Amino acid sequence: MTTAADPVIVMKQEVGKAAANRVQSDSIVGLGTGSTTAYAIEYIGERLSQGELSNIVGVPTSFQAEVLAKKYGIPLTTLDAIDHIDVAIDGADEVDPQKNLIKGGGAAHTREKVVDALANEFIVVVDSGKLTDKLGSTFLLPVEVIPMAMTPAINALAKLGGKPELRMGIKKAGPVVTDQGNLVVDVKFDSIDNPAELEKAINNIPGVLENGLFVGVADIVLIGEIIDGKPTV
Ligand code: 5RP
């Protein structure tokens, strides 16, 4: 069982709080997905309920984010009702020195890319374990594929040099299904030398909706670290 003293959880909490503290009143906020952003959503809700923040409206990147935002009292809107997003806060699975990301560990990267890319400022919240010199070194690259195209898409991903595997859910009882009703293929690439090129090549495969490479989207990366035994951002 994990407890609040787990250093990774403490880092996630601190970095989530730091991001929430950057949100200003009268703003439209993209609400990311995952365990780190969940803390940011919680703290935005806390600031709202304490009267520290007002007139905030959120754009959720997933059903999970929507449920959390409702739980913590953040009013929500959709992209049809707004003309901009002031700031988006979202996690990542890997971050390279150029602030390029791999996302999609929570199978939400398609909607995350739409919202995060629209934001005037996209703040990434990660613990220090997510930093890497080269994308793909520790995390598989998630690719959302429409179900009828799964086999040809897997073959095409292998032709691009990857080792694709359909993502299975809990106890491998069935595949993970995204909020859009699609499947996720996780792909191991030995080396992602040109993330921008690979992002485009994968999205060119018929039946692929979106992949988890976020190139040139992030503006700020907040990193949670434990320094001298103390959580630091
Ligand atoms: C979901 C994501 C998440 O932001 C990413 O997986 C990081 O999650 P966590 O903060 O739980 O480590 O991309 O699709």
From TrEMBL:
Pathway, per record: Carbohydrate degradation; pentose phosphate pathway; D-ribose 5-phosphate from D-ribulose 5-phosphate (non-oxidative stage): step 1/1
Positions annotated as active site in the UniProt record: E112
PANTHER family per record: RIBOSE-5-PHOSPHATE ISOMERASE
Catalytic reaction(s) noted: aldehydo-D-ribose 5-phosphate = D-ribulose 5-phosphate
Function field: Catalyzes the reversible conversion of ribose-5-phosphate to ribulose 5-phosphate.
Keyword Isomerase among UniProt keywords: yes
Top-rank taxon, per record: Bacteria
Gene Ontology MF, one: ribose-5-phosphate isomerase activity
Gene3D superfamilies to which the protein is assigned, alphabetical: 3.30.70.260, 3.40.50.1360
Keywords: Isomerase
Quaternary structure note: Homodimer.
Binding site for substrate: T33, G34, S35, T36, D90, G91, A92, D93, K103, G104, G105, G106, K130
Protein family per UniProt: Belongs to the ribose 5-phosphate isomerase family.
One of the protein's GO biological processes: pentose-phosphate shunt, non-oxidative branch
A Gene Ontology cellular-component term: cytosol
Name of the protein described by the UniProt record: Ribose-5-phosphate isomerase A
Entries under CDD domains matching the protein: RPI_A (cd01398)
Enzyme Commission number, as recorded: 5.3.1.6
Pfam families, alphabetized: Rib_5-P_isom_A (PF06026)
InterPro entries: NagB/RpiA_transferase-like, Ribose5P_isomerase_typA_subgr, Ribose5P_isomerase_type_A
SUPFAM superfamilies, per database record: D-ribose-5-phosphate isomerase (RpiA), lid domain (SSF75445), NagB/RpiA/CoA transferase-like (SSF100950)
